[in-house]
């Protein structure tokens, strides 16, 4: 920090000091400064408790508990000249404890604070005014997992900053503020700088965190889908193999389909499951779009006889924009609802066996007569 000397048109460096050498203490000084001037942390905050220890089965105390303009709880942890290596773990514990606080809990906590430090004020009125609501009934507090953490210290260890940056990628809003005292003669000064995320980069980092979390959620969702599919096929294949040898060499897979040869080159008979349907199908892809369409058209010309033999109407998909063609039998059903699996499997096994009986000889005769 520099002092501007206007008369000499110079700047003079102020000497940075440590809190300990100045005789300042964490609770008596740093905590009180922030409690009385919370906007020093860069935004409007309403302090609702100091040294909060209202956690079940623990005697731990968080330094300051506040509310931001969105009604989210803000845990403020203050350290003097060094954060210590465990400050992130400590703050995370406090955030988890605070996550369960209800609107009534928060009102009572704040009222206790007001009765001690600002007697005569009512928590409901102060909360309503701070959150710019007309009625206390309209106030929303501590919704979901919106709890925030602010760490305030003169120095941050590498293990702390590394952990904070990593946690930020999971949409946890955690900020680090570096506080530095300076002196010039008998005058003392204080700077409070947000270093993680830097103020200019905060929106960008929040966007990156959202993207990273979406990607994490996508990976987890894909893992869950894979597990569901594998479990589904593990249930279906023994039932199928008890009735037919078509899939005797197949194993459960993470894909949403299992196929085997339908007796003719380039033509598969398959089980397919999706979020909306359970089906058995004939999939025609010989490698030649023209040949595929020719096979499909000749089969479709016999649709009436084929469906009569199969026993129900089929869905005929020529797929003109693609090389392959498809003929399928399906009914509604979701792979992600395990209660539906027995009915889905019964239908799919029965439909695939009927498809094989209906198409295998037709496909063999047809493909033998078609030019290559």
Written description of the protein model:
This protein is an alpha+beta fold. Helix content is 40%, strand content 23%. The strands form three sheets. Strands 3, 4, 5, 6, 7, 8 and 9 form a seven-stranded mixed sheet that branches. The chain has a five-stranded antiparallel sheet with strand order 10-11-12-14-13. Strand 5 (62-67) and strand 6 (73-78) form a beta hairpin. It starts with a strand and ends with a helix. The model has no long low-confidence stretch (mean pLDDT 90).
Describe this protein with a few key phrases.
14 strands, elongated, seven-stranded mixed β-sheet, 10 helices, five-stranded antiparallel β-sheet, alpha+beta, 372 residues
In round numbers, the mean pLDDT is 90
Global shape = elongated
- State the total count of DSSP E strands: 14
Cα-based radius of gyration, to the nearest Å: 34 Å
**What is the overall number of helices?**
10
- Following the backbone from N to C, one meets helices and strands in this order, namely EEEHHEEEHHHEHEEHEEEHHEEH
Roughly how much helix do the residues carry, as a percent range?
A: 40-55%
Our estimate of the beta-strand percent is 15-25%
What's the N-to-C terminus distance? 84 Å
User: Mind describing the biggest β-sheet?
Assistant: 7 strands, mixed
Ranges where pLDDT stays below 50 over 5 or more residues in a row are: none
Classify the secondary structure makeup into a structural class: alpha+beta
């Amino acid at each position: 920090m520099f002092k501007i000397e206007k008369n000499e048109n110079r700047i003079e460096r102020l000497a940075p000091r440590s809190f300990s050498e100045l005789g300042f203490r964490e609770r008596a000084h740093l905590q009180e400064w922030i409690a009385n001037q919370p906007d020093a942390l860069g935004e409007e905050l309403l302090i609702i408790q100091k040294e909060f220890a209202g956690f079940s089965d623990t005697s731990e105390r968080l330094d300051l508990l506040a509310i931001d303009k969105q009604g989210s709880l803000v845990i403020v942890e203050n350290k003097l000249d060094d954060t210590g290596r465990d400050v992130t773990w400590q703050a995370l514990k406090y955030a988890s404890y605070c996550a369960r606080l209800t609107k009534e809990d928060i009102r009572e906590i704040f009222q206790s604070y007001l009765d001690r430090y600002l007697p005569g004020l009512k928590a409901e009125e102060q909360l309503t005014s701070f959150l710019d609501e007309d009625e206390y009934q309209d106030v929303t507090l501590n919704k979901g997992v919106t709890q925030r953490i602010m760490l305030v210290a003169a120095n941050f260890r590498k293990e702390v900053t590394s952990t904070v940056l990593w946690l930020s990628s999971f949409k946890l809003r955690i900020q680090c503020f570096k506080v530095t005292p300076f002196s010039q003669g008998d005058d003392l000064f204080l700077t409070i700088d947000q270093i993680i995320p830097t103020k200019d980069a905060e929106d960008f980092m929040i966007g990156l965190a959202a993207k990273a979390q979406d990607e994490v959620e996508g990976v987890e969702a894909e893992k869950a889908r894979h597990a569901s599919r594998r479990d589904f096929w593990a249930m279906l294949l023994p039932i199928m193999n008890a009735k037919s040898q078509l899939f005797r060499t197949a194993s459960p897979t993470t894909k949403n389909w299992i196929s085997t040869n339908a007796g003719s080159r380039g033509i598969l008979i398959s089980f397919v499951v999706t979020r909306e349907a359970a089906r058995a199908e004939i999939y025609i892809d010989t490698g030649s779009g023209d040949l595929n369409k020719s096979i499909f058209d000749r089969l479709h010309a016999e649709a009436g006889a084929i469906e009569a033999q199969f026993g129900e109407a089929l869905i005929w998909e020529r797929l003109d924009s693609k090389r392959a063609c498809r003929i399928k039998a399906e009914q509604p059903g979701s792979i992600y609802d395990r209660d539906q699996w027995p009915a889905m499997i019964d239908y799919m096994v029965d439909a695939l066996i009927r498809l094989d009986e209906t198409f295998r000889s037709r496909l063999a005769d047809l493909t033998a007569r078609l030019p290559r």
